[in-house]
Amino acid sequence: MVGTGVFRLFFLLYAFFIWLNLTGCESENPVPEETRSTQPLVAPRVRRIQDWPMFMSDLKQSGRSHNKEIKPPLELEWKFKTGGQIQASPIVVEDVVYVGSTDNYFYALLAKSWGVKWKFRASGAIRFSAAVWNDFVFFSATDGIVYALNLITGEEVWSFKVQNWVNGPILVDDGTVYVGSYNHTIYLLHSATGKLLRKVNKQVQINDTDFICHNGRLMPSKPAYRIGEWKNLIPFSQSYPVIANGTVYIGCRDNHLYAIDSVNQNIVWHYETAGYIDSAPAIAGNMLYATSYDGYIYAFSAVERLEEKSTAVAEVETTFGTIVQDTSPVYRFPEEPKNTKEKSSIIVELNDGVVVPILENANLGPKRNEDHEQFRQIQLPNGHSGWVVANTIGRFSNEESIQFNMDICGEIESISLINGAEMPNWSPDGKSIAFMRRTNLSGQYWKASELWTFSTTNRQFYKQCKGSFYNPNLSWSLDSKWIIFEAYEDNKSYIWAINSITKELIKIAKGDAPACSPVANQIAFRRWEDNEDILCQVNIDGSSLQTIARIPIDGQLSSFSYLAPPAWSPDGKRIAFGLDGHHFVSGRSEIAIYTTSGHRLQTISTQSRRIQKLVWSADGSHLSHVQTGLMKLDSVLDKRLHVTNSKQILDTTVFKHTAPAWSPTDRRLIFMERSDCMGIQWLVWVYDLKSRSKWQIARTNLRLTNIHWLPDGDRVCLWHTSKYLRSDKSEKKVYRPADTKGWIVHLKSDNKWSQNED
């Protein structure tokens, strides 16, 4: 019995010893873990000697590179701007630079050229270096969350929340991620799953090197070489030095990056940025990378390398300009051309919705003469030069800081509406602009919107009312005092009128798509009742409601109208509207023209499924409209602009036409054309019905939304409304309101793009 008791005691002591080793003598309970993956641990990837996979290159934090090509003086190869300060040191693996910024984004940048491979939004600012192991990159945010991302796609693999701040770089070795926290605790995480293996206090051994945890930073107890001797040679520095080919590179708080000869300890090269350089540089391949508090990451190479790769840029006479933007752009690269002599291209998509096609190859001299093209050289936000076709327009500024958002014929004036403004509509007298403003873009964003006006005389904004509407279909009364619009009440759409001066508000009738008569205070609108589309007419004060037409929907059930919004003829005696293909067994749409008394004058059949944007010419002789959803199976066209007289549709169809508007004084029609399927370039045309000629007045990469003629018939307003800036997957229902800007173009008959096309 005694022997049995001794054996039990020995077994308990042994088990307790094993438990102590497994827990690393934890002083706290294990923290909650957030794991989103169970990927198996794979064999370690063989590290390339030219890579820089973690802070200061390796676990010993030697900061040494064996590259023999990089040597001062250095020249800037490219730079990239983030949306915040960069305090973290970059790392480089397989020609990709990985770095985080205080704008909460973690970036994967192409190391040898320029552009974003991917970026990931974290839950907090990123102030410290990342580390790469196998197919994962690891980093931490200031809120204590450690992330593991897929190296190729940038998608989140797992995340883990520590109990305190992380105040230093992540370290990885042999499938284990080491994270130091501000409470002197070191977390050991499984690299593939994020599972907490154990916690250790103050000191841990990683690959035969002792690391201590001091204020959240893991540091080797014996650094590879003394740091202080290099800091003493320059002004105040918080940076860690790195060394390559006998030269030490170190940042400084005088905003400079210095190169110091390690033998004679002289400064042999320096480069000035616009902010502190507290981070350690990185050397990979034959390039050096550094970051700065100014938000840029800089890439340098030897001067000789840049001189060798110079091309015949001087052969092309161009205007040098710069792309302007608030935050970092997104770059989409095409596949590499099989023939290296071909022009390689890239799409630059700025965060305000501007899309710019860029030519990366600068050798354009011979090609220019062959194609009769003119190119404009630009400077991208990251400092790399590119080329655009002269008439390809984005948000640029030239050397004189003159912005040219548009390539427009004639004199122009600019109008900018307040943030969130959409769907502007000019008053008949040209003195006011009514528009909808979205103020809350979360959830069902249409529920929180406002109606505003802008005075073109005193340049002041006036809030008219607040309502729930998606598309108000704004319309002005003849005297330019009343604004007619649709809005929701109890989830039902109603027609409303508000006096823009007195703010008197009137609920007129149930329905939508109101249109004001050009000769009287009457409104035409549509409503849906009992499986019928109904066209109605009513006075602005809500009196004299009458039905003009009833259109049954053949076998189709719906809760909204299939009628295209009505359009009044200039004399106020006729109303045109479109009948959707849902009204007919054939599926083909029709144009119907009725008198105000309800008499059908004519019907015009089409080969499309839907009619949009009906507009009358000033003399009432012609009606323009846009057809969508063509019935031809072999057709790839989506929208065609047509003009019809009293009997037939005239053949004026051209690819991708939209937003037609007739001059208020004659038979000139202005419209927009998307010149390609991607909508990268938009053209604005004027078509003269009498001479059957057309000419361009503008070319732009801005997404134009609508066009308005001013009352004099000599000016038009082109409106651009940016897309909402939608969040990525890590954000939920976060949007930025659209920005709306207009350009008033003074038309000239002798403009440079005039052409006759009979």
Can you put this structure into words, describing what you see?
The chain is mostly beta strands. Among the domains are: 15-27 and 47-304, Methylamine Dehydrogenase, Chain H (7 Propeller), CATH 2.130.10.10; 313-404, no CATH class; 408-416 and 606-758, 6 Propeller (Neuraminidase), CATH 2.120.10.30. Helix content is 5%, strand content 44%. Strand 23 and strand 24 form a beta hairpin. The longest helix is centred in the first third of the chain and has 22 residues, at 2-23. The protein starts with a helix and ends with a strand. Mean pLDDT is 78; it is low at 16-43, 305-316, 365-372, 399-405, 633-637, 726-731 and 750-754.
Please, what is the CATH homologous superfamily of the domain at 15-27 and 47-304? Answer: YVTN repeat-like/Quinoprotein amine dehydrogenase
Distance between the termini: 115 Å
Q: Main β-sheet: number of strands, strand sense, barrel status?
A: 6 strands, antiparallel
Tell me the number of strands: 63
Structural class: mainly beta
Beta percentage is 35-45%
What's the total helix number?
A: 4
Average pLDDT number: 78
Low-confidence sequence ranges: 16-43, 305-316, 365-372, 399-405, 633-637, 726-731, 750-754
> Which architecture of the domain at 15-27 and 47-304 per CATH?
7 Propeller
